[in-house]
Amino acid sequence: MKHLIHTFKIYIQKYIVSVCNLAIALFVSISVSVYADSTQLVSPASDQNKLLGAYLSRAGNCMGCHTAKGGVSFSGGRRMYTSFGIFITPNITPDKKTGIGHWSKEDFWKALHRGESRDGRMLYPSFPYTEYTKVTRKDADAIFYYLMSLNPVSKENLSSKIFFPYNLKPLLYIWRKLYFKEGVYKPDHTKNKEWNRGAYLVQGLGHCSACHSSRNLLGASQKEKFIGKKMTGVNWYAPSLTSRLEAGSGELEINEITELLTSGITKRAVASGHMATVIRQSLQFILPEDIRAIAIYLKSIGRENSDIASAESFPVLSKNIRSRLVQGGKLYEKYCEDCHQSSGKGIPGIYPPLAGNRSVTMASPLNTILSVMNGGFPPTTIGNERPYGMPPFQQIFSDEEIALVVSYIRNTWGNHGGLVTEIDIERSRSGSRN
Amino acid sequence: MRYFYLTVSLFISSLASASGGLSVAVPDTMEERVKACTICHDNKDRVGRDAYYPRIAGKPAGYLFNQLRNFRDGRRYYQPMAILLENMSDEYMLEIAHYFSSLQLPHPPPEQISIHPEETKLADVLIRLGDPGRDIPACKSCHGEALMGIKPFIPGLLGLSHAYISAQFGSWRNGGLMRGQSSNCMSEIAKQLTDEETNAIAKWLAIQSVSGKPSPPGALSSELAHRCRSIDPENTYSK
Fold it and tell me: Residue A411 and residue A413: Cα distance in Å, rounded?
């Protein structure tokens, strides 16, 4: 028991440290005025600058990718499964031999801004320099000083396995010529400071479009940003941030957007899959004024009047389909209703509603299928420390039963989503890794 | 008359909120929060669609906490558990561990399987005395005199099924269960044991009826605690 208490104490201490960090970051942001006054002089490696770097590194979630499961933070080794290969993230602690201890801040800038490694190698865009290029020099330097202040961890980098033909360097060269546009974020002077701060964070460090923008065959984000896509190598669908039928925020209140981004749950929605991870690792620590700026920007790119729902054109259900929905309804009554209610309205802030929930009704049924199959807990965050969980129903349901219940919730209480078959279930399972 | 309208409108609005399903109160309890767990881990061992779900109620809190972290951090491999726990803090895991540890549910009756007298003898020796020649400690030296575990990190061995214990031995031997942990005493021990021995132990344990309680923390010798330092992820024993 003594040891258990000891372990517990360590976690309490860690928690206090993280809360303190947050408080310090808050102080820093107030005194340094994070973004707008980039001309203000701050001595390069000052503690203030390192703290600013720590904060910005949270905003960019460097740690999320540069930490293996259960590994030491920033020491790399995380495997990222993509359609182009298995990328293994490198060690970015300041270890001289295995990390980036011998890098100068110029080297770091080159990687972040130009997508080039210290030795001149072109980097693959699995490292989102396509977004990080928008980060200001001052912010990049602060992140560099922060990384240099970490404890060096000696851990050799493993080589990534890139599939043919993506492993051919000339192809990467051509790709960069075609799709990579180098350049720091340029404020839009027709918009206010807050909007620009949000755009800077979303388009740059936040690298939201790495998941939320559609990509072409060569993996480049398409011109039209944030229109949503199935994530490569994993089965989650990253919904559109513009469409009102998906995760567009055009019609949401600013408070609702900020609540979802920081606590992971609101009265209407819950973050799941990779978004839950981003919230837990990064967004929950973002300062209120920055989260507000992000929300203002996201709301502005949400379309309000396009994508009119096709409810009117929904086909008349055949007898066979109706009977499948009845079967789905029976399963719902037995397994789901306790939490999500017979009205489908759920319990606000605890069990999300399914009626009118866009992640249930959007064209891609993937996320709903995965939620039913895998269940899950909303992320534990400062705003939701003890979340209520959803059972992984694939442990007790057959694929057919999953298809029936998903079809039911996509077509009840006024929801109109496509029906789901066992083939969809099988497809959502194949190749799923995290 | 005004009051009449007011009363009627109040009545209607209360009806509306009741039918909105918002009047349902969700118990603010751990039991409610961990429904995601109890669909598989209810009050007894269960065989599900693809896996065997052991009973976790009443197991030592430190042991459960370690397993939760192992699943989340990729040291113990089972994808459904890894996905469930992916975004969970250590603090909440510890609370969940304490919750399941505190549950006092009746144990299942001993399994009805036949065991050969030779097997009984073999198991008995290993459980009571181990085999110093092969550096195998007695089961009792770590899992407690009553084989009900030692608080807070070492699990009891009674009340588990033959199938589950055999599967754990297999996993330890292949490094599958705890792959990634540098020093694991159970892996080393399982590799020393023969198939006959693990089978005899698994059978012997499964037919015992459950009695007694986990031993207090002091019951684990410092030598064995050091050897099995992977039980405490902070390695407080080894310092």
Answer: 7
Three-class SS of residue A305?
coil
Chain A positions in Cβ-Cβ contact with residue B155 (cut-off 8 Å): none
The answer to whether the Cβ–Cβ distance between A388 and B86 falls below 8 Å is: no
Q: How many other C-beta atoms can be found within 10 angstroms of the C-beta atom of residue A390? A: 24
Q: CA-nearest residue of chain B to A398?
A: B49
Cα-Cα-Cα-Cα torsion A69, A74, A78, A82, nearest 10 degrees, comes to 130
Q: How far is B43 from chain A (nearest CA, A)?
A: 16
Tell me the H-state helices in chain B. Answer: 2-19, 30-33, 35-38, 61-72, 79-85, 90-102, 117-128, 139-143, 162-174, 185-192, 195-206, 222-227
> A345–B85: do the CB atoms touch at under 8 Å?
no
Inter-chain touch A342–B88, beta carbons under 8 Å: no
* B90, part of any domain: yes
**Which residues does chain A have within 8 Å of residue B233's beta carbon, measured at their own beta carbons?**
7
Asked if the C-beta of B77 comes within 8 angstroms of chain A's C-beta atoms, the answer is: no
Say yes or no for a CB contact (<8 Å) between A389 and B33: yes
* Number of domain units in chain B: 1
B61/A4 touch (CB, cutoff 8 Å), yes or no: yes
**The domain that contains B175 carries what CATH number?**
1.10.760.10
Cα A259 to Cα A261: distance, rounded to the nearest angstrom: 5
Residue B28 lies in a domain: no
Q: What's the whole-model pTM score?
A: 0.85
Rounded to 5°, angle at Cα A363 from A419 and B84: 85
Respond yes or no on whether the N-terminal peptide bond of residue A165 is cis (omega within 30° of 0).
Answer: yes
Whether the upstream peptide bond of residue B152 has omega within 30° of 0, thus cis, is yes
Please check whether residue B83 lies inside any domain of the structure: yes
DSSP assignment of A360-380, as one string?
A: HHSS--HHHHHHHHH-B-PPP
DSSP-assigned states of every residue in B95-133: HHHHHHHH---PPPPPP-----HHHHHHHHHHHHT-BGG
Note down the domain range covering B120.
38-231
Of B79, B86, B89, the CB nearest to A277: B86
User: Has residue B65 been placed in a domain?
Assistant: yes
Q: What is the pLDDT along chain A (434 residues), one digit of tens a residue?
A: 445 444 444 444 444 445 445 544 444 444 444 444 444 445 677 889 999 999 999 999 999 999 999 899 999 999 998 888 899 999 999 999 999 999 999 999 999 999 999 999 999 999 999 999 999 999 999 999 999 999 999 999 999 999 988 888 888 999 899 889 999 999 999 999 999 999 999 999 999 999 998 766 666 665 567 877 777 667 889 999 999 999 999 889 999 999 999 999 999 999 999 999 999 999 999 999 999 999 999 999 997 655 555 444 556 778 888 999 999 999 999 999 999 999 999 999 999 999 999 999 999 999 999 999 999 999 999 999 999 999 999 999 999 999 999 999 999 999 999 999 999 999 888 655 44
* ipTM associated with this complex: 0.86
B34 touches chain A (CB under 8 A): yes
